[in-house]
Here is the input.
Amino acid sequence: MATLEIRDYQKIVPDAFHGTLLKNVAEILSEGFRLSRGPSQFLGDGIYFFESSEWHAKNWALRHRERGTDRIAVIQAIINLGHCFDLHNAEYRGLAREIKTNLERKGTKKITDAVVINLLATKFTIIDSVRATYISTEHGRGQRIFEGSRFFEYVQLMICVRKVENITNPFMVYSGYGS
Amino acid sequence: MNDSWFDKLKSEVRAFFETATEDEINQALNQAGYDFYKDIDVPIIDFHERLALHEWIGTVTFGASLSIKSISSKYFIIKKEIIYSEDMILASADNYGYSMAA
Here is the structure.
């Protein structure tokens, strides 16, 4: 049987979804995504996608539009994770903890996920993307999908892409008012 | 391979913290946007919180009488459970296209 060899740094996510406002779509599709910094970017600088969930991207855009009359959009893309700081990996989580501990020992306070990841990416080896699962517990979202289930209701598999060239084949899969 | 990439990353991190001076740490933190990101400990600001911020900044902008500091204080009163820094308030205001000149 033939063996398909895919190295870790070539891991591809074929169905990543980015929520935005419709007015931004033309510029994104013609000029590409831009690396950004923002108050909702808890994984640090980058372009944020929800893996395998158009619903979460739509929901994000709905919650972040300025007015109820704004049309939202969802862009689907293929992501090459490249050198990915994947927080599903225990060693990677361990390194993040190590950095936090070291910074605290040196007297730094208020160390967030974004600070640790940005520090890794700007001071050390290049990081093309960051991948993490977030389980929201706010506003009762931490409930399990049904009584006795091991799985949670509001789970987001997020990808923060730092190297924009690793975002390919973007196209709009949804536009509208979200209803 | 990703393993060697990660091993290299880990080695670099450890080597850095073994010898880094306070200045070098501060320089690395500045480069990482520490002042901006130090308060971002919630993934996504909830819609209602955003809405409150949105309306409030609108009021301040049009009222044109309050300082940035008092915006933070007022916002703290609106949402007691989450404290946002001025940098975050300003970034959000910028996202919404508001001028903060009061």
Q: What stands out?
A: The radius of gyration of chain A is 18 Å. Chain A has a mean pLDDT of 88. The CA atoms of residues 17 and 55 of chain A lie 9 Å apart.
